TrEMBL record:
One Pfam assignment: Usp
Limits of the UspA domain: 8-141
Top-level taxon in the UniProt lineage: Bacteria
Family: Belongs to the universal stress protein A family.
Gene3D superfamilies membership: HUPs
Organism: Mycolicibacterium brisbanense
InterPro entries hit by this protein: Rossmann-like_a/b/a_fold, Universal_stress_UspA, UspA
Official protein name in the record: UspA domain-containing protein
Length: 274
């Protein structure tokens, strides 16, 4: 719940794609939960030059308006009560959304692949946001399967000794409550710099359980990093991985190109907490 003085919106990058619609629908719950507006932003990808007649830009303007209408209609169809704002920004999508992040509670974007080749050749708005945004970023991927009674739809978060870890874990707990999901708390015991041994992991998870008795949280120790753990454990569904800013470098290995995902969880979304 937010206060009258904290009404920073949840921002969604809208480009007319199905991926962007998926991000917008995920963001609805985030905005409703915070009791803040949902702000839809379309960036044209081209700068607005005063010396060029405005008629030259009308196709881009019409496309942006159409993309925003489609996203607004999809949100309205959910029947959820949320104030929707929309805007068209001229210029780079990455630059526009990084700028929006200065006054946002969260920025949500769809992911269309973040592997090295994709990023090098085409650029990646999601990658730029994860690295440069001033607020939490949520990279949303489309779910094509649903959890069953035999498979749990986890939220995964790392437990470590970094200064921001409490904030990262707290955000994973918020998401677990919002999504009615359990939390898998991963401790990397062989990392002498920031890792935690199994006994310490159990102790920390017990503290989080006492603070949030409504949340199911399970500790798991591993000697490998989070991307490797996900790659080796594909028997359960993972709907969301929650990272701190120190782990942004893991994003290409967690998400990767859609046709060759690194992990066994090609549908999980990723949140980078700030």
């Amino acid at each position: 719940m937010t206060t009258a003085t904290d009404v920073r919106p949840v921002v969604v990058g809208v480009d007319g794609s199905q991926a962007a619609l998926t991000a917008a629908l995920w963001a609805v719950d985030e905005a409703v939960h915070r009791e803040v507006p949902l702000r839809l932003v379309h960036a044209t990808g081209i700068p607005l030059e005063p010396s060029i007649p405005i008629d030259v830009y009308r196709p881009e303007l019409h496309y942006g308006e159409s993309a925003l209408r489609a996203a607004s209609s999809a949100i309205e169809a959910t029947g959820k009560t949320v104030k929707v704002e929309s805007d068209i920004r001229w210029g780079s999508p990455a630059a526009a959304l990084v700028d929006e992040s200065c006054s946002a509670a969260m920025v949500c974007v769809g992911s269309v692949g973040m592997g090295f080749i994709v990023r090098r050749l085409l650029g990646s708005t999601a990658a730029a946001l994860a690295e440069n945004a001033h607020c939490t970023v949520l990279i949303v991927r489309r779910r094509t399967s649903a959890p069953t009674s035999a498979r749990t739809d986890w939220i995964v978060v790392g437990i470590d000794d970094r200064p921001d870890n409490d904030l990262v874990v707290a955000r994973s707990v918020d998401e677990a409550r919002l999504r009615n999901a359990p939390v898998l708390a991963l401790g990397v015991w062989c990392d002498t710099a920031v890792g935690v041994p199994a006994e310490e992991l159990e102790y920390r998870v017990a503290k989080w359980r006492r603070r949030h008795p409504d949340i199911h949280m399970y500790p798991v120790s591993t000697r490998w990093g989070l991307p490797e753990f996900l790659a080796d454990n594909g028997t359960e569904l993972v709907q969301l991985v929650v990272l701190g800013t120190h782990d942004v470098a893991d994003l290409p290995r967690i998400i990767g190109p859609h046709d060759r995902p690194f992990t066994s969880h090609p549908e999980c979304s990723v949140m980078v907490v700030r």
